[in-house]
Amino acid sequence: MPQLTAVGIDTFDESVYRAILVRHTAAPAELAADLSCSTERVARALDRLRENGLVGRLAGTRRRYAALEPGAALESLVRSRTADLDGVRAAAEKLSRLFSTARQCDSEQIEVITGDEALCRWFVRLQQEAREDVTALDRPPYALTTSNPVEATALTRGVRYRVVYAPEALEWPGVLGDIRKLVSAGEQARVLSGLRIKLAIADRRLALMPLTLDFTSEVRAAVIRPSALLDGLIDYWELCWRTATPLEAPAEDPLDEEDRQMLTLLVSGLKDEAIARQLGWSVRTMRRRISRLHKELGAANRFQAGVIAARRGWI
Question: What are the φ/ψ torsions at residue 7 (nearest 5 degrees)?
Answer without folding.
Answer: -105, 15
